[in-house]
Amino acid sequence: MKNTNLAYDLRNHFSGKQEITTKEITDALQEYFPDLSGSTIAWRLNQLKKDKLLYQIGRGLYTFDYKPEFAPELSLKSKRLYNRVKTLYTGEIVVWDTLLLNEIAGGDISKYWVFLALNKDELDALFGEMLSFSRKVYLQPDKETTARYLIPQDEAIILTALISETPTEQSGDYVSPSIEGILVNAWFEHEQYLQPIGLDIHKLYEQAFTKYNVNKSKMLRYAARRDKRKEINELLKTIK
Asked: Is the pTM of this model over 0.85?
């Protein structure tokens, strides 16, 4: 059976399911090809992936629906800021901003805020170097500082500690969180920073999973690294 025909039959077999596990697919393949060995069944599965008839969306999770990868492209302003900061600090910096959230969710935030994550032991020194910047800079602001001073700012820079094993992507000279990292970070920053300026966290997640290929396993691993796997997994269960 040709792979295109096999994929069509499998789509009908799993009609109505957005996610299919490896076991479900291999069991279905075994029904179609009862005489094939387990290794040959695995080969047929890999051929479906290779021919882009089946897409992996996590560890042991697949879908038949193609969705593009999200490539975080920083704005020119964020790139210029990154370049300036790199003249002051040569260590790893991971940058993301509210414009990326708007790109994913469809544009709810009017403010331009940039989050710079770096080694927590270097935060104080860099903060001191950046106080002369034209944009206001905040070092891991608490709730009171956020409410009184950050929220009124249309443009701001927020320094945070870089979490080890943050999933990232590099575009040229710039390192940003992958979409999985952005979603987890947004969940953490939602109540204090992002909800007050208009971000709907449920809409962000719903749009991300509707528009892009999000690796759920990667996202939950990072959530677990931040001790919030259970809470974020509960949010995922509400996504249609």
From this structure: no
